[in-house]
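The passage that follows is intended for readers who have already worked through the single-chain material. We present the inputs for a multi-component assembly, then the predicted structure in tokenized form, and finally a short commentary. You are encouraged to pause after the input and sketch how you expect the pieces to fit together before reading on.
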Amino acid sequence: MSTVLKIILQRLALGVLTLFVVSILIFAAVNMLPGDFAQAILGQGATPDAVEAIRRDLGLDQPPVARYFQWLAGALQGDLGNSFAQANFASFVGADSGGNTASVATQIAPRFWNTMFLAGVTALIAVPFSVVLGILAALYRNSVFDKFTNIFTLSSISSPEFFLAYILILFLAVLNPWLPSLSNIYQGMGFGERLEKTLLPALTLTLVVTAHMMRMTRAAIINLLASPYIEMARLKGLSPMRVIVRHALPNALAPIINVIALNLAYLITGVVVVEVVFVYPGIGQLFVDSVKIRDIPVVQACCLIFAGAYILLNLTADIMSIISNPRLRHPK
Amino acid sequence: MSFWLEIMGVLLGCLAAGWLFQFAGEKITHGKPFFRDMPLSIAFGYALGAVVLVWIVWSYYLARTLEAPEVNKYFFFRRAIDAFILFAIAAWLFRLLGRSVGTQGTKKLFRQMPLTASFGLLTILIYALLAIFAGVLAPYGQEQIIQGAAANIAPGGDPAMGGNPAYPLGTDQIGRDILSRLIYGAQNTVGIAFATTCLAFVLGGTLGFLAATLGGWLDQVLSRGVDVLMAIPSLIFALLLMTIASAWAGSEKGLLTFYMVVIIAVIDSTRVFRLARAVGANIVVMDYIEAAKLRGEGLFYLIFKEILPNAISPLLAEFGLRFCFVFLTIASLSFLGVGIQPPLADWGTMVRDLAQFINFAAFAPQVASAPLLAAGAIALLTVAVNFVVDWMLHRSSGLKE
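Having made your guess, compare it with the prediction:
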């Protein structure tokens, strides 16, 4: 067991290191902006005095390395700086910034939970659905059903998210008014209503993610069906369903878990477009809005959160596959 | 609640019908193995498939016979089925043409081709022709705000429905012809995506082969750098860099499009680098590379004359998939408003601009079709490329299962 622990700790350390380097990259990228934050806040008609004042206020007169570590230390404590768009000019020039409506953290926190809710609902629908579909496609491989699901999943993988989203809106919200096409979620909303408004974006993401998971599940199981012990089970006279569920599935679990984790990581990018389509108040929509108005601290923070989640999910996939595979658990 | 009851009822009905089907089949054929060994689950599947098929045919029948207000509900369904049948026939004819015209080699290729692959090839061909001859085919210019034409003319060309026969797909919010913009979109969106993919391959392929050939610290530095770049989700990273690029470009829209090409090419070249390095590393250890080295050939000769020709087939398949990814990323960026910049016509931007018309689908389905056409154009090309790549991989791996 100690070797497993050692490997996991190694991976964790590697993940933290990656996140650290990524944070340097994000910080460096933002510092490539022409001019600096002060000019960005004030616009082009700023007087040099005002620019200088803000620069001093934000600590921009310090060297980049010092600023990076200040930003990192702040981010670790949950202080992600102040948003340009929310901050008014006076609060920067004045001695006290007063009130924390401008802080990025207070802006992001509720939206973060909304996004997690959306991702959670999606995962709850998509994972069982795609695994069952994958098993069925492997069971009846090369049948009409298999060919049809193959074409269907290939098409839904290759469609852009907004196409799927608008198709679903068209059929489930406009032509047949079953579900709301706008996900205007606010705080203090009942769970049922919230779920109803989240359902359409969640279904869109399900369509995007299911295809991949289902194809990988099918491939993993079919890969195993050539093994001698499956042949043995078949020769014993077990039913095809039993062969797959009892003998193939446990051994295919490692690649399937891996695929599920990787696809949840893929959800992160999918979430951005889908949230914009449905006006879902999540972190992806905030990110796109901030990109458009060049609200640098928010962009930086969102980027860090997305990258962190992505690295964490990839790390989980990695560790899961090590734990479930004895060959990786006991390297020679 | 009644909706769920209905679903449950249909499923139970299918179960009963499946059982009946199997039972009747066994009795009538006097125990043919096909019916005798059929599990209930497969019989259920047959029944469910039959129900879905009947439902599709019934809806299509309704779509063709119903009158104005009710038929709106089936408008898109009908168009989708029409398009599906049309494409299937076109793909079949195309395959037939390929089987009877051409050299021995291409004839053989077409003989083994599934219908999906010939559909993919045909679609790619049509897109390529549209992109090349956009200037000739489009009735109006892509930036041209047509004098005398109103804005927001409905698609369909029927004056009673707010259309105009001169503009078969209508005009957009500032009075540009949508059909022309769709055709020019093939040139801009597909052309830019193609250029980006090529750039990504030149960059990633060269660096990957270099890393594989030289090894040592260069390999280490490049590989770790790629690891870090790949740790950020690509769309997020592209959006971050586009923020910075838009600050650099200022008000010059053309420059911003150029920056976008470079940014996406760099992000995507990391994936190409991985593949090129892996494939190259397998080739570098071959004897003929050793021989070339002993002959005293230079690095340039090694990479482009020895390694590249032997790595071309996996790279080609990857090129198709990469193109899809790049194409979808660009479309997504444009849809979010930070990709290809106006006045260039582009499908992603068109979807964003026209999306609000989808809400009118229940009263005037033609109006809602314009944004869906643009989005569908994106989806159709990626589906086509995927079908062709799928077929190529299937052929080269010799997978029969």
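Commentary: Chain B has 16 helices and no strands. Chain B has a mean pLDDT of 84. How closely did your sketch match?
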